[in-house]
């Protein structure tokens, strides 16, 4: 199988991506809720749906500093900062930025200043056009999307994390166009209706038309879209070869949390370093989105990307499968600025051309990918660990 991998890497683009990832080195990632406070109450926000604000963030700065030093000592080098609202904790955000690769996900109402955060990737939330976004996030009153656009106009740090809903696929062209015209990049999430709104927002309606419109945006703005068709397919269908998405395969669990003992022992891969910290910084949760979240309505993109990333051996059955794995890895590193950003963006059109579509492939082909992965077995696990 090493020979097979060497054959795939004779492709100049794949070799370039592979070498860039190797130079960047492994990621030892965590997620942290930097605060239990937010200036919005979005419909369908997992943080408040699961009452995670009950874990109040420490007032004593020494507690935060001790936590940060502990993570440095543990070898952490990448932090996803969520909350609550990270822009309400700029001093602590700066400390994380000064010590780790990181991304902060914000609602955009309060601008994170440029000074001191010059190279920090900022994930800007948007959940639809101005009407839909105002309903879901602004309580029908606050035009959140509009405020965030003003705050981050022509800001090279900003990537819109566009959470799409099944029946609002027709909004995608307009929203993406506005984000690109605003001088920013775009990636996608998929709305899980954990608030029980139903109707237009019911995830059980499926995301087929959403994916088709995402593909159109990739074709129109290949140098601005930081999600591949392959990633969108895996996230929105919950399918990776013969596996179905669920707790038993999710890789973004907290391994040393006792609640995950059975999952750790089931034989499926997981991120051995990962921890999802509650705002108190003293406790962790089962996975990145809570202790009891129904995985059937979890469309968390980072969790699904981790599922792809941790399954290299399943992607060795063909050049296309390996290309999908490698471009997923690279997109994650690129969006979080772990590899050279300007150089990587220049490669995006060709990367998109390589990241194929699972939905148009027969099931027999999917099963074949699994068989090839089984043949590779543990002998290739170190290749994943070398990159991850």
TrEMBL record:
<dbReference type="GO" id="GO:0046872">
    <property type="term" value="F:metal ion binding"/>
</dbReference>
<dbReference type="GO" id="GO:0003824">
    <property type="term" value="F:catalytic activity"/>
</dbReference>
<keyword id="KW-0949">S-adenosyl-L-methionine</keyword>
<dbReference type="GO" id="GO:0051536">
    <property type="term" value="F:iron-sulfur cluster binding"/>
</dbReference>
<keyword id="KW-0479">Metal-binding</keyword>
<dbReference type="InterPro" id="IPR058240">
    <property type="entry name" value="rSAM_sf"/>
</dbReference>
<dbReference type="InterPro" id="IPR013785">
    <property type="entry name" value="Aldolase_TIM"/>
</dbReference>
<dbReference type="Pfam" id="PF13353">
    <property type="entry name" value="Fer4_12"/>
</dbReference>
<keyword id="KW-0408">Iron</keyword>
<dbReference type="InterPro" id="IPR007197">
    <property type="entry name" value="rSAM"/>
</dbReference>
<keyword id="KW-0411">Iron-sulfur</keyword>
<protein>
    <submittedName>
        <fullName>Radical SAM</fullName>
    </submittedName>
</protein>
């Amino acid at each position: 199988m090493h020979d097979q991998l060497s054959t795939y890497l004779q492709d100049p683009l794949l070799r370039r991506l592979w070498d860039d990832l190797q130079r960047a080195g492994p990621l030892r990632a965590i997620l942290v809720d930097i605060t239990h406070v937010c200036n919005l109450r979005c419909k369908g926000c997992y943080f408040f749906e699961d009452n995670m604000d009950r874990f109040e963030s420490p007032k004593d700065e020494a507690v935060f500093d001790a936590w940060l030093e502990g993570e440095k000592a543990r070898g952490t080098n990448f932090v996803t900062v969520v909350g609550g609202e990270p822009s309400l904790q700029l001093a602590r955000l700066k400390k994380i930025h000064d010590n780790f690769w990181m991304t902060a996900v914000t609602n955009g109402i309060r601008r994170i200043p440029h000074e001191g955060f010059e190279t920090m990737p900022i994930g800007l939330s948007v959940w639809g056009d101005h009407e839909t976004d105002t309903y879901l996030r602004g309580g029908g009153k606050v035009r959140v999307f509009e405020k965030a656009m003003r705050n981050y106009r022509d800001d090279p740090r900003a990537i819109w994390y566009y959470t799409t809903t099944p029946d609002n696929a027709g909004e995608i062209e307009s929203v993406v166009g506005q984000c690109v015209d605003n001088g920013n990049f775009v990636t996608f999430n998929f709305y899980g209706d954990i608030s029980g709104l139903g109707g237009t927002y019911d995830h059980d309606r499926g995301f087929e038309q959403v994916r088709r419109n995402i593909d159109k945006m990739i074709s129109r703005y290949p140098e601005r879209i930081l999600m591949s068709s392959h990633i969108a397919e895996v996230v929105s269908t919950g399918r990776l070869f013969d596996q179905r998405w669920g707790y038993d395969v999710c890789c973004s669990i907290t391994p040393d949390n006792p609640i995950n003992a059975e999952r750790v022992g089931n034989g499926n891969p997981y991120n051995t370093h990962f921890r999802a910290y509650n705002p108190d910084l003293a406790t962790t949760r089962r996975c990145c989105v809570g202790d009891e979240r129904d995985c059937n309505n979890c469309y968390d993109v980072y969790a699904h990307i981790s599922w792809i990333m941790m399954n290299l051996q399943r992607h060795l059955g063909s050049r296309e499968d390996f290309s999908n794995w490698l471009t997923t890895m690279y997109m994650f590193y690129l969006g979080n600025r772990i590899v050279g950003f300007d150089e990587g963006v220049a490669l995006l059109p060709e990367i998109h051309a390589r990241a194929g579509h699972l939905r148009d492939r027969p099931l027999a082909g999917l099963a074949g990918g699994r068989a090839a992965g089984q043949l590779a077995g543990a002998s290739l696990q170190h290749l994943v660990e070398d990159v991850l």
